[in-house]
From TrEMBL:
This is ABC transporter ATP-binding protein. It comes from Bdellovibrio bacteriovorus. GO terms for molecular function: ATP binding; ATP hydrolysis activity. Transmembrane segments: none annotated. InterPro entries: AAA+_ATPase, ABC_transporter-like_ATP-bd, Metal_Ion_Import_ABC, P-loop_NTPase. Belongs to the ABC transporter superfamily.
């Protein structure tokens, strides 16, 4: 296994230079899952945004050893409340429409009327179909009912099993139901 991400003393900062998160260090190897936990406001999402190039103010360093096109990101569902006349099907590429994750879903339903679980299944299916080397999920279980959480976790477990070189960074407040073999936990305080 080779390293795809090395993070050293990485700390999110505001434009004014204030610390937004504690400094973190970690390495992520091919096939590993990194589970970031922490209280609201601890800087988990901001750290992800630094790694994705979406937040420019930080201290420390990180080395991403894959190209950005090999990464896929699903932000917090609350950040995707747009009101466009789209159906769920409009959000899913044809290559993803046969994924078990979408079974039983009415893809003709409007995005605006879909539940959190339906939206999250569609977003996850869209990125899984691309078979990324690194999948970054920010609070994928928020606004999702218990049954949908299990479906989402099962889909992630199946993806990781079928794509052993792919890695996952997952931010969540909740404990995982799945017992994935190579999970690293990083507590952000």
């Amino acid at each position: 296994m080779s390293s795809i991400l090395e993070v050293r003393n990485l700390k999110a900062r505001s434009r004014e230079g204030l610390d937004l998160s504690p400094a973190v260090d970690f390495d992520l190897q091919e096939g590993e899952v990194l589970f970031l936990r922490g209280e609201n406001g601890s800087g988990k999402s901001t750290l992800l945004k630094i790694l994705l190039g979406l937040h420019k103010y930080y201290e420390g360093s990180f080395q991403l050893r894959i190209s950005k096109v090999e990464m896929q990101y699903v932000p917090q569902l609350g950040n995707l409340n747009f009101h466009l006349p789209l159906t769920l099907q409009d959000m899913v590429p044809p290559t993803a429409r046969d994924l078990p994750l979408l079974r039983g879903l009415d893809l003709n339903k409007k995005w605006n009327t879909a539940s959190g679980g339906e939206r999250q299944k569609v977003l996850l299916a869209a990125v899984l179909a691309k078979r990324p080397k690194l999948l970054v999920l920010d609070e994928p279980f928020n606004h999702v009912d218990k049954d949908s959480v299990q479906v989402l976790e099962d889909a992630l477990a199946q993806f990781l099993k079928m794509n052993p070189q792919s890695s996952l960074i997952l931010v969540s407040h909740r404990a995982l139901v799945q017992n994935w073999a190579s999970v690293k936990f990083l507590e952000i305080r």
